[in-house]
C-alpha cells in the first residue's frame, strides 16, 4: 500500500508534536527525581487516567482483539480476562489507595515500607528490581518487533530503499522502522520524564478516539443489516456460552474452524473459569512494577489514585472496542476482499492491517495510522519511563552513590533509558515472532508473580525471605513447567498451557512463600506496625492490630472487606458491559444496547454509594 501525501503529513505532524512536547517540559521534569519519575505528583487524576488508558491501547493488543472479535464474536469479551483486564477494578476499589498511601517513588522502594531494611528485605528489593527490568526489556522488545512489522504493511521497504544513500536488505526493513519510532519515543521520555509521557499520551488518546469513532461509523453506515446477519454464524452475536464453545463457521468461512481448533478454546466454560480464578489472584496481588504502578504513585492522593484507576476502564473499553467492532464487521461482510495470506498460509491476525488497506479512505488512513502509532509509542514511552525509576533510584542511588546530585541522577536516568532501549532493540533484531515474546512475558514473568504479591498485602507473618523465595521459585517454575509438563497435556494448545498449569504453579510458589516465612523470623515489628497504620489493609493482621491499638487506642480496623468485594463484583460486571456495549452498537442490536445501558447504570449507581462516596482523601 502506498500512503498519500496527506496521510504521511498527518503522521509526520503527530511525530513532530511529541518531540516538541518533550523539549517543552524538559526543564520542569529535571527539577528532581520526584518530578522526573512521577511528574512531581502535581498532575490531576484524570490526566493520568487518560495517559494510562492510552498506554493500554497498543497495536499488537488491538490486532489480537480484532482477531478474537472476528472469530468468536460477542464471546470474545471474556477472553481478555486471561491478562486479566479486570485488575483495574481491584485497583479502583482498594489497591490503588493502599499503594499510594506508601508515598514512595517505585515498587521496589515500597518493599522497605513492608519488610524493612534487613537481609530478607534487601533480597526482596533486589528480586523486584530484577523482575521490573526484565519485564521492561521484554515489553520494549515486544513493542519494537510489533511496530516494525505493522508499518512494513503500509510502507513496504522496497518503496523506501531506492531513496536511501546506503543499502539495507528488505528483511531488515521492519527493524529500521522499529528503530525510528522507538528512538522518537525514547527522546521525549528522556527529555520530559513522566510529564512528557502524560502530555504526549493526551494527544495520542485524542487521535485514537477520533480514529476509533470514524472506523465504527464507517462500519455502521456501509454494511447493510441483511448482509451482516448473513455473514454471522449462529451464536456469534451472543455473549452467553455453555461448557463448549459450539461456534460453527462451516456455512460462512470454513477456514475459521481450523483457526478455532488451533486456539484451543473448545472447552470455553473451563477456560473462563480458569481465567477468572487466575485473574482474581493476580489482580489481588496488586500492580506489577511497571508504568501502571508509576501512574498510581504519581497521583496527588490515595483518593485520586482510586479515581484514576477506575476511570481507565470507563474511557478505554468503549472507545477501543468501538474500533475493534468496526473492523470486525467490515472484515466479516467483505472477507473476500481481504488479503490475509502470509507465507502461503491464511493468517487471521493480519485482519487489522488488511482491513485498513481495504476499507479506510484517504486522509483517514493517516489519522488511523497516527493513532495506532500513538498507541504503540504511548505504551513504549510509559515502559521506558519505568526503567530508570528502578535502576537509578533503587540501585544506583541506594547502593552505589547515595549522595548523588539531582543533576547526576537525571543524567543517569537519560543513560538508563537509552541503554534499555538499545538492549531491547538488539534482542528484537533476533526475534521473529511477537507471540514468542508475549508468551515469555505472560507465562514466564507474570506466572510467578501472584502468590508472593498476594501474601504481602494480607498476611502480617509473611516476611522478606518468604517474598524473595516465592518470587524466585514462581518465576523459575513458570518458565520450567510448560516444557517439562506440556507432554502430559497433549490436547491443550501451547498458547494457553500456562493457564492450565497455573494452579500447580500457585501451589509451588505459594507453598514456598509460606514455608520460608514460617521457618524464619518475622519482620521488624516497628516496620509492620508503621505499614499497618499507614496503608490500613484488611486481612490477617490481628497481632499487629493489637500492638497498634495498645499504642493508639483510637485506631480503627479496616472493616471494608465485604464492601470491597461487592464493589469488585459490581466493577467487573460494569467493565464487561462497557466492552459489550460498543459491539452491540456497531452491529445495531438495539434491545441489547438498551439492556446493557441499564445494567451499566445500575452498577454505577450502586458504586456511587458504596465506593465513590466512601473514598478517603
* CATH structural architecture of the domain at 5-263 and 302-432: Up-down Bundle
| Fourth-level CATH superfamily of the domain at 5-263 and 302-432 | Sodium/glucose cotransporter
Shape: globular
Can you list the strand order of the major beta sheet?
1-2
Q: What is the helix tally?
A: 27
Q: State the order of secondary-structure elements, H for helix, E for strand.
A: HHHHHHHHHHHHHHHEEHHHHHHHHHHHH
**Under CATH, the topology of the domain at 5-263 and 302-432 is which?**
Sodium/glucose cotransporter
Low-confidence runs (pLDDT<50, min 5 residues)? none
Radius of gyration: 24 Å
What do these coordinates show?
This protein has about 625 residues and is mostly helical. A two-stranded antiparallel sheet has the order 1-2. It contains 27 helices and two strands. The chain has helices spanning about 5-25, 25-30, 35-40, 45-55, 60-70, 85-100, 105-115, 120-155, 155-160, 175-220, 225-230, 255-265, 270-285, 290-295, 300-335, 350-360, 365-400, 405-430, 435-445, 450-460, 465-485, 495-500, 500-520, 525-535, 540-550, 560-585, 590-610, and strands at about 340, 345. It has a domain at about 5-265 and about 300-430: Sodium/glucose cotransporter. Helices cover about 70% and strands about 0% of the residues.
Observed structural traits:
617 residues, mainly alpha, two-stranded antiparallel ribbon, 27 helices, 1% strand, globular
Secondary-structure topology with pairs:
Layout: H1 5-24, H2 26-29, H3 33-38, H4 45-55, H5 59-72, H6 87-100, H7 107-115, H8 119-154, H9 157-160, H10 173-222, H11 225-231, H12 255-263, H13 268-284, H14 291-297, H15 302-333, E1 341-342, E2 345-346, H16 351-359, H17 364-400, H18 406-428, H19 434-445, H20 450-458, H21 464-485, H22 497-500, H23 502-519, H24 525-535, H25 542-551, H26 561-586, H27 590-610
Antiparallel strand pairs: 1-2
Helix pairs in contact: 1-10, 1-17, 4-10, 4-14, 4-15, 4-17, 5-15, 6-13, 6-15, 6-26, 7-8, 7-24, 8-10, 8-17, 8-18, 8-19, 8-21, 10-15, 10-17, 10-18, 13-20, 15-16, 15-26, 17-18, 19-21, 20-21, 20-23, 21-23, 24-25, 26-27
Membrane topology: Multi-pass membrane protein
InterPro entries: Na/Glc_symporter_sf, Na/solute_symporter, Sodium:Solute_Symporter
Catalytic activity: L-proline(in) + Na(+)(in) = L-proline(out) + Na(+)(out)
